[in-house]
Amino acid sequence: MTVRWQEHVSLKPYNTFGIDVKARYFVQAHTDADVREALAQAAERDLPVLVIGGGSNLLLTRDVDALVLQMASRGCQVLSDVDGHVVVEAEAGEPWHPFVQWSLGQGLCGLENLSLIPGTVGAAPMQNVGAYGVEIKDVFAGLTALDRQTGELREFDLQACAFGYRDSLFKQNPGRWLILRVRFALSRTLQAHLDYGPVRQRLLEQGVEQPTAQAISDAICSIRREKLPDPAELGNAGSFFKNPVVPAALAEQIRAHYPNVVAYPQADGQVKLAAGWLIEQAGWKGYRDGDAGVHRLQSLVLVNYGQASGAQLHGLAQRIQADIRARFGVELEMEPNLY
Ligand code: FAD
Ligand code: NAP
Question: Could you tell me if the CB of 16 is within 6 A of ligand 1?
């Protein structure tokens, strides 16, 4: 036996909300062999398995009576480098932001807008992580996953992943696929995406007129550090709700009452509303009930001031959902994975 099983482990250090629930068993997997061994032993004991990475998109509402398998594999490498088109591969347990920085250090462009997202490479395909107008689907070259039903390895191309807005095949089939490593198609030539939010403005403020990928990454890091709470200081899981995409007629109805509604027309004729704006309008910004609250600068982020339980945070989320439904007729969908 090479993997180390621990019992009754507090998951507080393993989820960015900092929620103190216990795992019945806990294992860190550094290699594919560790993963297979841990899964085989769990099957022998008839134990369910919860796979985690950095725990930055989880809301744990109870003790986990299962094996919690944390992906701790590391490594990234260039697989091919032809005419400025470069395919890189990273192990699932590789922390995301250091991987982005590694790619920039190699002179590679494509991941700069996705800087400073917490978590691991292996979890990124789960919700097709996205920020500032780029999603991983835009630079995705493939992934290798273990089918937990059959024990076989499977390669996924872009189409097979069924990526959508904060969505994928993997999110739709929780627990079925364990992602082992992910490949990205990067480029030595920058195609800058600067039109989202305050990115262009920040670069101009910094005196950057012809930005490099590293300069874009730095600008995005500085914006994010200003707006978002650092989980090391204040527990949170980033955006708690997805931005709702609603029929144009509903968006117009809302605009009739609230001319300043933040709304982005989509290619399919629907309209994406900024969930943070809806929550702020409803008066929740900075709200606090015990140790569960809504961040004072960013209403889309629920926070744990210290001792909030997952159930308290979930209860607060449900109250916000009910209020937004009553006020605007809009359903807010939770983004973090609930256990
Ligand atoms: P975890 O929280 O550990 O797991 C998330 C889900 O993936 C769980 O269902 C888990 O079972 C599953 N999973 C984890 N690893 C694997 C694997 N190897 N194989 C199969 N399933 C797996 N998200 C964005 O999209 N854009 C952002 O800009 C963004 N900003 C954030 C900012 C902050 C401050 C925080 C706290 C979160 C933010 N997030 C953002 C959410 C989160 O960082 C991402 O969703 C991230 O990809 C989660 O990675 P993780 O390793 O922490 O996953
Ligand atoms: P923001 O810039 O204040 O914008 C508010 C919302 O409007 C965002 O959620 C974004 O939607 C949308 N938006 C902004 N500009 C847009 C444009 N040009 N076209 C279409 N939609 C636009 O957002 P923020 O909260 O500071 O976050 C900045 C970026 O980081 C966003 O992309 C956000 O998704 C991402 N982020 C994600 C998380 C997470 O946990 N998922 C946490 C922090 C930040 P989108 O969200 O659809 O991009």
Answer: yes
